[in-house]
Task: inverse folding
């Protein structure tokens, strides 16, 4: 009995990407809180004072500014 050589078969499995629904993303940094972002200008002297106080109190600059504005408005009776 003569055995015949079987042909060698080669298979390659190539993954096919699945079609997905497109994701619509907004541009820019994602929102981190519920309040809208505000921009303000401060002289360097005030900004440095805010940074020093924030570091000393272990607060964010934003929190220091929020507290300062709220205190000012309460003193001026513009905020209950």
Result:
């Amino acid at each position: 009995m003569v055995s015949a050589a079987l042909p060698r078969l080669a298979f390659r499995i190539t993954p096919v990407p699945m079609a997905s629904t497109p994701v619509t993303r907004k541009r820019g940094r994602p929102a981190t809180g519920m309040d809208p972002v505000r921009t303000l200008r401060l002289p360097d002297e005030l900004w440095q004072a805010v940074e020093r106080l924030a570091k000393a109190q272990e607060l964010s600059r934003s929190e220091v500014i929020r507290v300062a504005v709220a205190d000012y408005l309460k003193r001026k009776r513009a905020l209950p």
Notes: Residues 44-75 form one domain. The chain has a mean pLDDT of 81. Helices lie at 44-57, 61-75.
